[in-house]
Amino acid sequence: MCKHLWDVVQHNSESIWITWIYQYRLKRSTIWTANPNTGSWSWRKILQLRNQLIDHIRCTVGTGATLMVWQDPWHPFGVFIHRFPQGPQVAGIPLEAQLSVVIQNGASNWSAIRNIQNKVITDTLPPLEGADRICWNGSNDFTTREAYHLLGPYQIARNCFILWLAILERLSTLDRAWW
User: Fold this and answer.
1) Spatial contact of 24 and 34, defined as CB atoms under 8 Å apart
2) Which of 13-17, 41-45, 57-61, 160-164 is the least confident region?
3) pLDDT tens digits, 68-110
């Protein structure tokens, strides 16, 4: 699942599945703002993993052409729409706006700074150079091994599962055996 999430984050266009995800599941949103309550079981599990992996992913802003202002975690605040839900209306910048629309020649191009939240955002805008990149913290290259070690503590231990069955009185015992 982690590998699939990483492929969606990287927008690996060589994969037919990734192309399908962007056309039919994400449409005008990103993996970070997609609704976790819709879709198949595997899609919902991928969306659950994003909350655990977002701290281990960093965006390097280049031209800003592939990153969305409100829906991508390009800023230290993370995904802006989660932090500032009224941001698109207050700033006058559409929800689907690319970062290159807001930052031009290293300076912010916000239509109006109406409150302190927008001031904080614009004071920390990076200059735009090169291509946008999404990197894995640590080795910069995503590996399933690193993701496994990262998510290892979240796995359900066998003992916890057996205890859960015992609490629900569903543990296979001789009393419950079919003869």
Assistant:
1) no
2) 160-164
3) 888 888 877 788 888 888 878 877 788 888 888 777 666 565 5
Cβ(127)–Cβ(149) under 8 Å?
no
pLDDT at 144: 66
Q: What percent of the chain has pLDDT over 90?
A: 0
Neighbours of 119 (CB within 10 A): 11
Q: What tokens does 45 get?
A: 């599990």
pTM of the model: 0.59
Q: With contact defined as beta carbons under 8 Å apart, do 70 and 87 qualify?
A: yes
Domain extents in the chain: 53-167
3-state DSSP of the chain: CHHHHHHHHHCCCCCHHHHHHHHHHHCCCCCCCCCCCCCCHHHHHHHHHHHHHHHHEEEECCCCCCCECCCCCCECCECHHHHCCCHHHHHCCCCCCEHHHHEECCEECCCCCCCHHHHHHHHCCCCCCCCCEEEECCCECCCHHHHHHHHHHHCCCHHHHHHHHHHCCCCCCHHHCCC
- Tokens (6 digits) for 95: 């929800």
The Cα–Cα gap between 169 and 138 comes to 44
Residue 87 dihedral angles phi and psi, to the nearest 5°: -55, -50
Scanning the structure block, which residue is given the tokens 């819709």?
Answer: 38
Read off the tokens for 75: 């800023």
